[in-house]
Amino acid sequence: MSELSIKLIESLKTMGLAEYEAKVYSTLVLFERAEVKRIYEYLNIPKPSVYQSLKGLMDKGLVMMVSSKPAIYKAVPPRIALRSLIRIREDAKKIALEELERIEKSNIEIEDSYIIWTLFGENNVEHSMEELMCKAQKSMKLVLPEEYLNYLSFASNKDLKIELIMFGKDNSIAKHYKLKNLTLHDGYEIDFTDFGDFYKYLAKLPLPPEQHSKYIFILIDDNEFMYVPPYPEDTKPGITSKNPYLIRVMSIIFDAVFEHTSEVRLN
User: Fold this and answer.
1) What are the residue boundaries of the structural domains of the chain, listed by start?
2) What pLDDT is attached to residue 110?
């Protein structure tokens, strides 16, 4: 079975085929057409598994029977077959999303307002960012590094009051991400000495200068927030919560920093 690479089989499995279905379809592409005996002898898998795979492939529109006596099967050309698989996945995605959103609206809520959840790893941080930005209904307060500005696309064309601290002066950002009500401030211009005696405590933080622009902070609707500190960590740890006390503290800190940075005039 050297002609059927592991990469090929794994790719077809990712697109929705079972392992034996992927192998049977690939074998039919290799042979152009074949009887069941030739398929299971070539693959060295049980005959019932070949019959089951052929049925599944025909149901998906990827295989045709071109002769009944003897039964001979032919693969639908790969370009057509892959388009069919994509269409099946898209239809399934649409149905799944509709059903999941339906049960999400009627879910059994638990009281989690005072829980502080931890985040670990780049994927969890990014998923939380996307979730919060999609959930926002009224407002967002944000501190975003340059490499995460693309997440603003989840707020495109939404009627949100957005206050953003970024590190730089990209005055085209509102137009680029279609943000209707954006106020942008440049984080590089903050002067912590303006904070009086509090500055001497800030100065003690062991934060390398190159990490100053790596803060991630999102507060939506004054109701839920996430925070990822700027310290270099392989696991990228952070927190998220609906805790009203923490939200108030975070909002005060954000507002204080926002007031001590200059506004960027938008195009």
Assistant:
1) 1-108, 116-259
2) 59
pLDDT lower than 50: segments of the chain? 1
CA distance 211 to 220: 24
Return the structure tokens found at 222: 């004054």
Q: What is the spatial distance between Cα 31 and Cα 44, in angstroms, rounded to a whole number? A: 15
Closest listed residue to residue 224, CA positions, set 151, 162, 132: 132
Given the candidates 3.40.50.300, 1.10.600.10, 3.30.1370.10, 1.10.10.10, the CATH classification of the domain at 1-108 is 1.10.10.10
pTM equals 0.66
Through-space distance between the first and last CA atoms of the chain, rounded to whole angstroms:
60
CA of residue 213 relative to chain centroid, distance: 23
178: CB partners within 8 A, 6+ apart: 156, 157
